[in-house]
Amino acid sequence: MSASLPNNLILETSLQSYFFDQLLQLNQKYSTPLSKEDIFYSSLVMDKFGVAQEFFEEKGGRTSEKILGIKLMESTHLSRKMRIRELKDVGDTALFVCGFFSDSLNKKIVDVSYYRSIGQAAYSKLNNLVPSFYDVDSFYNEFSKKFSNVTLLMELLSKEYSSNNKEDDLIWIAS
Length: 175
Fold this sequence. Notes:
Layout: E1 9-12, H1 15-28, H2 36-48, E2 56-59, E3 62-65, H3 68-74, H4 80-100, H5 112-129, E4 132-133, E5 136-137, H6 139-145, H7 147-163, E6 170-173
Parallel strand pairs: 1-6
Antiparallel strand pairs: 2-3, 4-5
Helix pairs in contact: 1-2, 1-7, 3-4, 4-5, 4-7, 5-6
């Protein structure tokens, strides 16, 4: 007896490689393509937020949504190592929210432009602490300038995913 797999089963070795491939395909159609380093970093961010817990933080035994503006301000009082971690988290969270969930911000007081500003500021500050990444000088500074382009690519992927009825697809990560 052989079990048949559904036609909409996507086999990948990792969620990150799936997102990298999808973003790379969309990027090739883009009028101002992003670098492979930008695509790779974006796919890492998308992979990170494949775990719902990444949207929240725990303080004093309570789980709550991340308040990115406050986290950005508070990061100035942290040790260098903790500041790097917090700035990266703020930038990555803002990037993912602006890119993959931009439609969810349409009816909120805090809109996409707020998250974009917070994300760009976080990546710019991070560049002062980590001036080179992926052997690219000023990676985070340049990435902050491309923030809108990166989020547009992620948004296109999100819309393509939902318009193709892919929400019924099953992504199986081979381990």
